Amino acid sequence: MLVSSGSMQHWSYFYSISMKNFLLLLIPLFLILQIPVFAQNAELAKLLALPNDTLKVQELAGFAKKMVHQDKAASKQASSALLQVSQKINYVKGMAIGYSYLAFIDLESGKHAVAADLYNKAITYYRQAHDERGVAKCLGNMADIYESTGQGDRAVDARLAAVAILEKLLPTSKAPEDVMHSLAIQYNNFATTYADLFLNNEKAYTYLKKAEAICRQAQDTSQLIDVLGNLTSLLTEEGRVKEALTTGKEVFRLSKATQDNFHLATGYYSYGFVLNAMGQVDSAVTVLRQGLQYANQAKSDYRIFKATHLLALALKKQGKYPEVISILEQAYNGVAEDGALKYKSEIAAELGHAYFKIGNYKAAYQQLEQRFLLNDSVIQLANNQLIAEKETKYQTAQKEKQLAQKELLLQKSRQQVIYAIIFSIFALLVTAFIWVQYRNKRRLHKTQLQTLQQEKEIQLLQALMQGEEKERSRIAKDLHDGVAGMLAAVKMHLSVSKFEKQPEGYTKALELLNEATTEVRKTSHNLMPEVLLQYGLDAALNRYCTNINSAALQVNYYFIGEEQRFISSFELSVYRIVQELLNNIFKHSRATEATVQLSVREGVLSLSIEDNGVGFAKQPGQSGGMGLESLKRRIRTLNGNMELSTEDGGGVSAYLEFSTAGLQLKSPEPKTQFV
């Protein structure tokens, strides 16, 4: 249809007027949308202006918790501020809250490594504040990190520890609703662990019903939404569609009543999950699209992945593969580098299938190859072979285009080229075989020499350590039986003597003798600790840390796990290593506080030693001084390893781990009497 120039001018003028009016309408609309942001910023600024005290910390904590699902940036700013204030006023509980809030924000963003480090710090401060519920909360979130990174056993251990703490606190808690809320979270996450990692739907169902009962008893709607959402998915997968539909409708209704994006994403996802399973695909797609919008508004990576994945499955049933590819790629590109590998793997698999359906075999192959890199065990061999065949066809088609142009030129020389190639390949194979044999012999010889050298070094170190302990034992006995005995005898003689002329000097002499006797006894016990021989490593380290406490250096000691005895030589060697590390802290670190944590679990004994001193600056290519290298060699002789991290001015953190296989005692060793 043709349009005259006059008509064009008319429409151009009308368009310019309309655009001006439209822009004028956008300005107040933009300002209206910014009102909540301005209000939040104003509220945070008001809180930051408060004086630095515990009340300010509590107010900032409430704001950070309120904003965590609405505005993560504002929540993070408030959490960082409350941590800084707590550090300034030395408020231990506030420091624990700050670290845990920051960790949760990083966990929601998929930054698992950063979140794990922050949770470990939070646990340390919660324990100092004697807040067991805070410890349980952090352990539960650490279990989420282990689960997301495929460490199922560690996830279960952390979750069990959290549940044990909460179940112990519940009967005597002054705020049972809070404890029940935390316990419901752990039961709910336990169900997820059993369903996703161990494929045990029966146990998952048991824990979900326990979580549901607690939520209904405590009238905890927010947590009940999550629990019923997982229950809906489980019932659907088990084929119990009628029950799943009833549960899904309840989740949908409860989430709409909250008007919270976080809960709305869960409600729409659960309802859409059931509709899709029932074959009501069009309705499912409508519900899931809305659920994905709520998940994006909540900025929750986990819910975004779940909603995207399920929406893609529903769209596949409608044959809308381009849209499937679009939403999956958008979700995949939003994943943090160190997190959500399980979800990335699932998305890569779905992308591969979608690309295959539209005939883009190369892209399909690349996506499934990426899935293998992320999670080899998830992809079946048959799918891999199918994609490999399609890729081969694709590559062959490309080569045939090039070969067709050169075929005429190669016909005359093809036979000669083939003979030359065969001869070259044969020569290369013979050469490679000879070279591989020679390299393997050299490698085997080098390995044997290294093994002999390591064994010799270990034997020398063991002999040296045994000699040192024998000498310590001899000196301890000499001090205890010799010098201590003589001091006791001198004290006895002085006690029965009478010094009438100088009573003050006499009293001072007795006091000095008492101090000397005490110092000799303490020295002899440090050289050969009786507590270690009689009661084991936990009691000995606890006693030692208590004894070296002073106004200059506060040493805190913690123990995790079940008390267990090991052979005496191993316990004594570990005790000496801790003594040496603490001695280095006392001499060189200028620290005011140090922490020693002993952990014993099946087959592994680990130690964590940290201080808040000045640290030390390491030069490039250096791993430490001679003393540190000697200590590392001693640790290697005990089948252990040590990781040391430090920053100049930021303290030193040492982590030691030993394998205890074959070192456990079935019955306690005979106790040595050493008074």
TrEMBL record:
Gene Ontology terms for molecular function: phosphorelay sensor kinase activity; protein dimerization activity
InterPro entries from the UniProt entry: HATPase_C_sf, HATPase_dom, His_kinase_dom, Sensor_HK_TwoCompSys, Sig_transdc_His_kin_sub3_dim/P, TPR-like_helical_dom_sf, TPR_rpt
Phylogenetic lineage: Bacteria, Pseudomonadati, Bacteroidota, Cytophagia, Cytophagales
Transmembrane region(s): 417-436
All residue ranges annotated as the Histidine kinase domain in the record: 474-662
Gene Ontology CC entries for this record: membrane
TPR repeat coordinates: 345-378
Source organism of this protein record: Adhaeribacter swui
PROSITE patterns: HIS_KIN, TPR
Keyword entries, A-Z: Coiled coil, Kinase, Membrane, TPR repeat, Transferase, Transmembrane, Transmembrane helix, Two-component regulatory system
Coiled coil (residue ranges): 387-416
Protein name, UniProt field: Histidine kinase domain-containing protein
